[in-house]
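hey so u asked for the seq, here:
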Amino acid sequence: MRPLDGITVVSLEHAIAAPFCTRQLADLGARVIKIERPKVGDFARGYDERVDGLSSHFAWTNRSKESLALDLKHAEAPAILKKILDKADVLVQNLAPGAADRLGLSYEALSQRYPGIIVCDISGYGNDGPYRDKKAYDLLIQAESGFVSITGTPENPSKAGCSIADIAAGMYAYTNILAALLQRGKTGKGAHIDVSMLESMVEWMNYPLYYAFDGASPPPRAGASHATIFPYGPFTAGDGKTIILGLQNEREWEAFCRVVLAQPELATDERFVSNSLRAKNRVDLTELITQAFATLTIEDVVDRLERAQIANARMNEMRDVWSHPQLKARERWRSIQSPVGVIPALLPPGLSSAFEPRMDAVPALGEHGESILRELGYVAQDLERLRADGAI
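ran it, structure tokens below
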């Protein structure tokens, strides 16, 4: 038995934030009915064709769901939605601002009929305020939240390499829905959850915000290095491969000089005797570290760092992560079905002794429409008429 077995989630979703939220609910056993536009579906289906013709984003965020193709503007859509919602515990939506309200799917409207329903709205800026109707995509929120301003090199600000703002919003939607289900178990009442991408990202930005408190200077952009701790970041070994290392205290600095650099005298060099001085003189220290690593392979460097008990990591590429020995040893990969055949999928983070996460197929567009509608009482003649009419 999984934690959310018996819970039904209806999702009017596209892109990443809402699909990532609902996929995690499906991981825990929830039935997720994903409502998509006929013929085109969730536009994330068309982002790319990297997974044997399937979109990489869609493969990641949509396993274990049922897809119903339904034109929400069709005259019969409200009746179909009502029958689906009669069985639902949760509605998740990240449509354009105001769209769900116009469809009669606001919490205010639904809670009159379903007092126990949980409605989660995910948007760029939230359900009110001057930015409510402003378009919001992941990169735009990365910029608006200040994230881009502290990320990258001194010359070039950068975005994150993954959809970090969407992921943040999806995670807060997921955890808020779990909390609302727990609360409903105590009170019997549903809840309205309003998750904003901006607020999710600004929460994650609290360290740099506090660092720049009361008009102070923000953390400088330092590429893959730490902005305020040094040495902490990438260095190149003699074989051209990159190692990331990080020192946290003076004990580690002494061990780094003695064991890794084989230059114990550097530990007391007046330029480097504190973290603030090492950060100030990072150019000189970088040159010394680079010279010391020039005759070593990455394996040599890792061996010395491990002996010195200095935290380190290889700068892996995607092909390295697919074959990562730690993931293999912990048996984190599974095989799942998809419209293009069997593909690998990573188990959700967190090992529970109580249940095995659900790892079902990625759905084709409208794959479950007939079975869902038959479950709601529609017969073959109804289905034929709805198809001919473009409703499904």
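The mean pLDDT is 95. Residues 60 and 153 are 30 Å apart (CA to CA).
lmk if thats what u needed
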